[in-house]
Amino acid sequence: MNHIQQIVIGVSLLFALPVMGQQIVTLQKCYDLVLVNYPLAKQTLLLQQQNQLDIEVINNKKLPQVSLDAQATYQSDVIEVPIPNASMEALNKDQYRATLSVNQLIYNGGATHASLHLKEAQLKTKEKQVEVSLYQLKKQVNQLYFSILLSQENSLLLNSKKALIESKLSEVKSGIKNGALLPASDKVLETELLKINQQFIEVNHNKMALLQTLSSLISKSLDASTMFQIPLIDNPSNTTINRPELEFFQYKKEEIEQSESLLSKKRAPKLMGFATGGYGNPGLNMLDNSFQTFYTVGVKLNWNVFDWNTNKKQRQSLVINKDMVDTETEIFKLNTNIELQQQQQTINKIEAFIISDKAIIELRKSVLKAADSQLKNGIITSSAYITELTNLYEDENRLIQHKILLQLTKANYNIIQGQ
Description:
Elements: H1 3-12, E1 24-25, H2 27-37, H3 42-60, E2 65-74, E3 94-107, H4 111-135, H5 137-177, H6 185-218, E4 227-228, H7 244-266, E5 270-281, E6 292-302, H8 310-376, H9 382-417
Parallel strand pairs: 1-4
Antiparallel strand pairs: 2-3, 3-5, 5-6
Helix pairs in contact: 1-5, 2-5, 3-4, 4-7, 5-6, 5-9, 7-8, 8-9
């Protein structure tokens, strides 16, 4: 196996499956974990608990409302009957009363049910807002995931380059020993190996920083041995937008409609039944100056007939809010379509780069093959060979960057589109 075959095999390993026993992470798994483990995800349960309490408060308005009142008063004057020689005892100036009242809502025009429907609509809107915020984290996951992939593939490529140079170093030392090559030829290769070790340190340091950030984001332990699969994402086939923001806008409109319904029902008359029992001095008979028990029962009607068009103006304001939501929806769709067009242009550009990269690499391989032969025959120095090897490595690295960037752009396209 010659050296050119070695570097080709090394590069082909970049997209091979990871070995057994290593933790394997996929892009979809990172999406799933961030949606579940990110602290914001806990708000959904909290919103549901809060909504349940609000519903119970509204339903309690259907139950009898009980109140207890007690008072003791002293007044400067009391009622007197102006009848001469009347034996009627004057009322005490100190008076006492304790009452227990029960009020029962009989009819309020459906305002209670409208309040419940509004709470349900508000819960859907808030839950969707949480979903929208979590969805936006996917772009952050994309950036971290594909940056780690790039570090991972750079490390594999460095390993291939290092193995090739070590093999070449062995050949050069043999040539020096046999007098076929100059004594200092091996020093150039040894220097290159030291540079590769420095590159390993930088790549590994950057990768660990990215791993720590992604680990915190998805709440999953990741280490240097974790292997990240390269997703093979298909080219975009349509531009239909299916983002959660669109549902959020629709839920906002439904919430406004429920608010309109509640406002309209608040104008309806309210019918209440009531009962009051009490004990006091005097009782209901103000002329009986003694402690008595008493009670009253009845119904009462309340209807705000004229409110200076306040209710009407509030509903008109809600209509304007709905129009504003429609405008927000149009703006969102427009901006999203612009983003999709930009991403598609980037995809086309990178695909063209990849075709060019492959052609350049084939030419670089031919040049390196010739340099390899010339080095063996002592025609060129090790420095000249290293130059050609570095050129091939840089072009291979550029191809890897473009392949990773292409998958990142496709992944971002899918996030922007809502897949």
